[in-house]
Amino acid sequence: MGLFMRNVPAGGRVFVVAAFFLLPVLGLLWSDRPQAVSFVLYANLYALALYDYYTFRLPNLLTATLVATGLLRAYMAGFAMQPYIIGVAAGFFSLWLLAFVYRKLRGRHGLGLGDAKFLAGAGAWVAWYGLPLVLLIASLAGLGAILIKTVMKSEFDPAKPVPFGPFLCCGLWLIWLYFDRISF
To answer: Distance of alpha carbon 147 from its chain centroid, rounded?
Structure first.
């Protein structure tokens, strides 16, 4: 797992790695998506989720790969590229704007640019019309995780950072698997 996991207890490492790997792979069994394409997305999401979980960073190489593979998949499938290109721009600028406004209002960072780059990659995979659901699922999953952790440990520290990347990965994965070309 590399250097970024050296401070994590072995038991925690095994649980996190197993949960991030086994549960989403089981989701492929009930999906009608092409499994080779889904595996490319999943491998990238797996790496992004683990990296962010342990380092609070989403590396540029992995987010750029997410954008490139998503756009390539849309092109190779013969889809109109406009919704996916709009998805890349809308994904990045929506979270960039949210981070900018938060920083101006609160005087501290609340969201990293890696999250904005990730959402650009999500837009490349599910187009602009899938992004609201990706964010909804990610936000609800993140809030649920914080609530469970707070109840289990009886403590809450709003200043403590939470890696949002794993929840974004969960949202993108679920939208990719179960919502086929969402339309309004």
So the answer is: 20
